[in-house]
Design a protein that fits this description.
Elements lengths: L46 E5 L5 H14 L8 E3 L3 H8 L9 E6 L5 E14 L2 E13 L8 H14 L5 E6 L8 E9 L2 H6 L11 H7 L11 E3 L5 H12 L4 E3 L3 H8 L6 E7 L6 E9 L2 E3 L7 E2 L1 E4 L3 E2 L4 H14 L4 E5 L5 H4 L5 E12 L18
Bound molecules: 2-oxopentadecyl-CoA and magnesium ion (MG).
Length: 389
């Protein structure tokens, strides 16, 4: 398949797969800042660029509504991601974020917001190298403006603004295959509310299963099993950072997180991110933690239900508590908070609990990409320690 745009970009090209003469690392060297184009790329005449101030309630509401109506759907168009405004503000304002990387396109005449793309800064470690990157996400073009080659202009514009901050690499994920994924993960789903999931067409009743047997199969204990399990608090940030850094050190591609990052990404935020630590009842040491983020989907075309509440496994570290027990407690907490389904990728050591805890494989794949950085051999999902949303 030809990729008229991607063939022109510094990314791994399909034709180079398996070429052992190409070394790992940047594909192009950084340019002097004076060589970065100072003015924005041209848009078709009816449209104009806008920088979206996510602190501003009205702008945030416009972004929310663009994404709620036009962002990612499943293959059968039954569900569409419904990131909340609070989630978007959390995702787009991490430590050191640049407002200029929150890019919109408006119709000049009406000022209606019709397209969006974002970057946030991150330090990503690839094997032994820690690289400053942009994490690019929320690329969205209004349904009525699709297939007009607007996406390549948006990608070039975010690239230009990232270059202006002297950053030359990026990380992103997508459900579509582009040149060239450095790893591909699969989503697994654990039913928490099987009746609703079946009613809305998210899952099907298994062969020779009745609804009541299915409900019994997925039933969870009313309370968690691990002594000392509690919600993460601000005072846990140093211990969680230490646990997480040590745990992630075994993987090939991971975020390089300091205490500021952990405070932002993991401290509980109602309906956005939930984190629980295990504090040893004897030593009061934090020995383990789990976390998940909240990403509901709109249910399209169903009489009885309009929102699917989904929890997504984020970062989990089981140092003392068995991972299986820790993750079963995560399921119990999610069920108590009324989530319908708990999703997890087969990244990190997740394979070791997925089947056992009754997750089933989904049909969704998530491909991981780096911009201007070649990874020599594609990774197995179990070598990946980077979770995006
Ligand atoms: S993935 C979610 C992407 N969004 C959606 O799926 C929402 C629903 N779809 C849409 O809004 C997470 C449109 O279909 C979009 C494409 C806007 C997706 N990534 O305008 P045209 C992210 O946000 C290529 C990258 O005609 P369209 C990650 C496509 O292959 N490229 O299409 C974002 C083709 O190029 P090719 C994608 O349907 C990462 C060209 O776009 C893509 O009207 C971005 C067609 O453009 C995707 N998901 O709009 C890259 N989908 O070469 C960041 C399509 O094949 C790179 N395309 O001809 C790093 C930048 C920073 C570097 C800093 C150093
Ligand atoms: Mg287009």
């Amino acid at each position: 398949m030809r990729h008229r745009f991607w063939e022109t970009q510094p990314v791994g090209q399909f034709k180079d797969a398996g070429d052992i003469s190409l070394s790992e690392g940047p594909i192009e060297p950084p340019a002097p800042l004076s060589a970065v184009k100072p003015e924005p790329y041209n848009l078709p005449a009816l449209y104009e660029w806008t920088t979206c101030d996510m602190d501003d309630e009205q702008t945030c509401a416009e972004v929310y509504s663009l994404l709620t109506n036009n962002y990612v759907e499943d293959d059968e168009n039954m569900f569409r991601f419904n990131y909340s405004k609070e989630f978007l503000q959390w995702a787009l304002r991490p430590p050191g974020y640049f407002k200029s990387w929150h890019i919109g396109v408006r119709v000049k005449a009406s000022k209606k917001l019709v397209a969006f793309i974002t970057g946030v800064p991150a330090r990503i470690r690839v094997r032994n190298e820690v690289v400053r990157m942009a994490e690019v996400n929320f690329l969205c073009v209004h349904k009525k403006l699709r297939s007009k080659r607007l996406a390549p202009v948006m990608i070039k514009e975010v690239t230009r603004r990232v270059h202006l901050e002297n950053i030359w690499q990026a990380a992103y994920t997508a459900g579509v295959v582009l040149p060239t994924p450095f790893t591909t993960c699969r989503y697994w789903h654990r039913s928490l509310n099987p009746k609703k999931l079946i009613d809305v067409g998210f899952s099907r009743l298994g062969a020779r299963m009745t609804m009541s047997r299915t409900i019994r199969l997925y039933k969870l204990p009313g309370s968690t099993a691990t002594p000392g399990l509690r919600k993460m608090e601000l005072r846990d940030v140093p211990a969680v950072t230490r646990l997480l850094r040590e745990y992630l050190s075994q993987y090939v591609v991971v975020p390089d997180l300091d205490e500021n990052d952990v405070e932002h990404w993991l401290l509980p935020l109602e309906n956005v991110v939930e984190s629980y630590v295990v504090e040893s009842p004897e030593t009061h040491e934090v020995t383990d933690f789990f976390s998940f983020y909240s990403l509901p989907s709109s249910i399209l075309n169903n009489q009885n239900h309009s929102v699917l509440k989904a929890a997504y496994s984020y970062y989990n570290v089981a140092k003392k508590t068995p991972l299986l027990q820790l993750m079963n407690d995560a399921l119990i907490v999610a069920k108590q908070k009324d989530y319908d389904v708990f999703n997890a990728l087969d990244a990190m050591h997740n394979e070791t609990f997925l089947k056992e805890l009754k997750f089933g494989p989904g049909d969704g794949q998530l491909h991981y990409y780096l911009y201007n950085y070649r990874v020599r051999n594609a990774l197995r999902p179990s070598e990946l320690g980077l979770i995006e949303y």
